[in-house]
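> tool_call: predict_assembly(chains=two)
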Amino acid sequence: MEDNKKVLTLMPLADILDGEDAVTVWFEVPGVNAEATEIEVKDQVLSLTGASTLVRNGRPVVFKRQFQLSDAADVEKITAETRDGVLTLVIPKLQRSKVHRIDVK
Amino acid sequence: MIKRWNVDGAPTPAAWHGLDELFDSLMRKWPELRSNWMATAKDFGLELEVGENEVVATVPLPGCRSEEIEVEVNGDFLRVQARRKDAAVEEGVEKRYLKRERTALEYSETVRLPVRVVGETAAAEYGDGVLTIRLPRENDQRKNHRVIKVD
């Protein structure tokens, strides 16, 4: 997998949805299951690596992508799930980053 | 012959389909032209592997369910159609998208198979976003093998 000459590295396509309490990211990673997925966050940079069962042009496919997270992301509470070749990441927002409405009396 | 189109809601001008097909066919013929940093699974669609006893076709279809995929073998042609649902559109929150890159909601591709296959005994399975179709090769080679007399 580390031999870059043999591996075909592809960028997983992503949809990002901004919710009230969390940001949801869907990555397309066909051929990748939970065991073959590695996600790590270091210095607010999220790195994703997924080894796929797909082979293209005789080379095994590996999906790789990095994302810069904002300071508002609650890194400790990120959850990840794979289903039908789609990796879903839910990145909760920290309380302090949420919009607080203040009533004026 | 490969015919391919992806529809994502709004209609695309016909000229774009032609350009897309031309670009796709060039990139498939010479994948090295496309630099790796921008390559996605979309650039590597249906692929055929011709074995001694069977032809195996693999198609990346992330986010689909098996009941949303149709596979048809008609003579020498293999046709795959798929449609996936957009969860955010169903929940009515699609306007909050910060980024939308994922592949089209509808997929259709038809390829001509390079060898004769037995469509009746073909099998397809879907797992982890990849469709795998196994097409046993026709054993009766008499149709393909002819001795031609030279006068």
